[in-house]
Design brief:
CATH class of the largest domain: Alpha Beta
Strand order of the largest sheet: 6-5-4-7-10-14-15
Mean pLDDT: 96
Order of helices and strands: EEEHHHHHEHEHEHEEEHEHEEEEEH
CATH topology of the largest domain: Rossmann fold
Number of helices: 11
Number of strands: 15
CATH superfamily of the largest domain: Translation initiation factor eif-2b, domain 2
Largest sheet: 7 strands, mixed
Shape: globular
Distance between the termini: 29 Å
Number of domains: 2
Bound molecules: 5-S-methyl-1-O-phosphono-5-thio-D-ribulose
Length: 353
């Protein structure tokens, strides 16, 4: 059974509750956008493309539930919902990209009939979901050749089906290589503080029968030194025009270690993860999260409650450490700026924007 992190079911948004994995596969099913906002904030749904898709469905829900009597009032409610959902998490640009597409869709029609505008918004959200499925498959195809027989590959956080509308970004590359019959081992960083690697990535890889080795985050250097890693692939939450890429906290450290050991470090992401409005990584807003994520682990206190905590959820890997960016429109290598701008113009082979 394929994993559907976000789906539309009988007029409601259905989310796999990722906070409960791998222990329990349960769902949050809601037509309330405050519940959706909270689900994004609490990482019930997480991963850059998936939160974009969830946001798009949130806007469609707001339109369907709005009591507005005319299209102008309906559009106002739609914009209000999009602005509200945009406050849930700041780093992954896919959220703002998807909310922007929903606003654009609302503006694109001179609908006299509120019903058709509501329908159009739901169709746009479903289109964003379907589109992401195709993007994931193409990323898998475009990155698969990097994986050589017998290789060890390191990944960080979760950039799989749980994080997207399809088979993932970094993990889609592994799934594609596996389908081609290649044998390889994926080393998975546990990814403190919220353990997306340990809880989610290992769960997804094992389901697909991929040889998987879980390591604690602080073991990456040793594993590289022992010659076990030939390649690193991670996802991204926002890529700047110069190729700097934000991803889960710890990614920058892994990229630095990879450089020190002569191991190529790749980022896999759809074009919807590129922020064409920012020149470099330092402009990317980094989400700061609650201290309790550091002082506790899976609900158990592990530090004195009154200790000061710093908890940035993401870091930015400079383009100089990135050997290539695998997108649905091809794999690009440094220097990035012009190639990234070309990606914007290039049509996806599936017709995506
Ligand atoms: O805080 P999270 O779990 O939403 O962080 C997710 C990541 O950092 C992923 O690597 C990124 O969103 C890419 S997902 C295809």
């Amino acid at each position: 059974m394929s994993i559907e992190a976000v789906s539309w079911s009988n007029g409601k948004v259905k989310l796999i509750d990722q906070t409960k994995l791998p222990g329990k596969l349960t769902y949050v099913v809601t037509d309330d956008i405050t519940v959706l906002w909270d689900s994004i904030k609490r990482l019930v749904v997480r991963g850059a493309p998936a939160i974009g898709i969830a946001g798009a469905f949130g806007v469609a829900l707001a339109a369907l539930k709005s009591r507005a009597k005319n299209c102008q009032a309906l559009k106002k409610d739609v914009f209000k919902a999009a602005d509200y959902l945009a406050t849930s998490r700041p780093t992954a640009v896919n959220l703002f990209w998807a909310l922007g597409r929903m606003k654009q869709a609302a503006l694109s029609v001179e609908a006299e009939n509120c019903g058709s505008l509501r329908q159009l918004l739901l169709e746009e959200a479903i289109h964003i979901l379907d589109d992401d499925k195709m993007r994931c498959s193409e990323i898998g195809r475009n990155g698969e050749r990097l994986i050589k027989e017998g290789m060890g590959i390191l990944t960080h956080c979760n950039a799989g089906a749980l994080a997207t509308g399809g088979s993932g970004t970094a993990l889609s590359v592994f799934f594609s290589a596996k389908r081609r019959g290649k044998k390889f081992t994926v080393y998975v960083d546990e990814t403190r503080p919220l353990l997306q690697g340990a809880r989610l990535t290992t769960w997804e890889l094992l389901r697909e029968g991929i040889d998987t080795v879980l390591i604690a985050d602080n073991m990456a250097a040793q594993v590289m030194k022992e010659g076990k890693i030939g390649l690193v692939i991670t996802g991204s939450d926002r890529i700047a025009l110069n190729g700097d890429a934000a991803n889960k906290i710890g990614t920058y450290g892994i990229a630095t270690l990879a450089k020190a050991h002569g191991i190529p470090f790749y980022v896999a992401a759809p074009v919807s993860t590129i922020d064409f409005n920012i020149k470099r990584g330092r402009e990317i807003p980094i989400e700061q999260r609650d201290a309790s994520e550091i002082t506790s682990c899976r609900g158990k206190k592990i530090a004195p409650g009154n200790v000061k905590v710093y908890n940035p959820a993401f870091d930015v890997t400079p383009a100089s450490l990135i050997a290539g960016i695998i997108t649905e429109k091809g794999l690009i290598t440094p220097p990035y700026k012009n190639k990234i701008l070309m990606l914007k113009k290039k049509k996806g082979c599936y017709g995506g924007k």
